[in-house]
Amino acid sequence: MTLLRVVAGDVNPVLTTRRTYLRVPTMADHPAWAGLREASRSFLEPWEPRWPHDDLTRASFKRRIKRYQREIREDSSYPFFLFRSVDGLLLGGATLSHVRRGVSMSCSLGYWMGEAHAGQGYMAEAAARLLAFAFRDLRLHRVEAASMPHNERSVRLLEKAGFIREGFARGYLLIDGKWRDHVLYAVNAEDWQAGLADGDAARISPGI
């Protein structure tokens, strides 16, 4: 897939890894998404902004889908749901957001995983594939991410994917109703390409 197809209105890119695939959410995903989010509520809430009272409703999800489609058309954000290839089961989601062109050519990576599927390496595969998408298809130069320091799973995931710790931001994001400190990470295209050149492709870009 080329950048031209993405920004010209192809709102349904599909990215594959060894065990999973990522695609843009659709209205048909609502039952599986709402069920997984509800089942994982206590697992997810400590790491996310406060959920709106109607967050899991079909009406709210419809607004979410419309926003996703608009953001892709505008080349400002690329949201994906993550599915297991063998049976199409929804596992979680990830987004390349805040796409900045011009002299920045960067974006931010965010992700969530259903509690039942955490710790099995699925999101590590997804993060690696999203880096390939960001650098090869979107032609970006930098992907940023942030994690609360005590979110050990998130920190391990980012470091395994090749992200480099760059700093510490006090009161960086409003998470679960409180302003939380975050560790800041990033990976540049040169870092990512160097990993491939060093023969680390299995870690950095599985499924390509």
TrEMBL record:
Under the heading InterPro entries, the entry gives:
Acyl_CoA_acyltransferase (IPR016181), GNAT_dom (IPR000182), N-acetyltransferase (IPR051531)
- Pfam families reported in the protein's UniProt record: Acetyltransf_3
PANTHER family given for it?
Answer: [RIBOSOMAL PROTEIN US5]-ALANINE N-ACETYLTRANSFERASE, GNAT FAMILY, PUTATIVE (AFU_ORTHOLOGUE AFUA_3G00765)-RELATED-RELATED
Q: Which GO terms describe its molecular function?
A: protein-N-terminal-alanine acetyltransferase activity
EC number(s) reported in the record: 2.3.1.-
Which keywords are on file for this protein?
Acyltransferase, Transferase
This protein is called what? Putative ribosomal N-acetyltransferase YdaF
Q: Which gene encodes it?
A: ydaF_2
* UniProt GO cellular component terms: cytoplasm
Asked if Signal is a keyword of the record, the answer is: no
The N-acetyltransferase domain sits at 34-190
| Annotated family | Belongs to the acetyltransferase family. RimJ subfamily.
Name the species this protein comes from.
Methylobrevis pamukkalensis
* Top-level taxon of the source organism: Bacteria
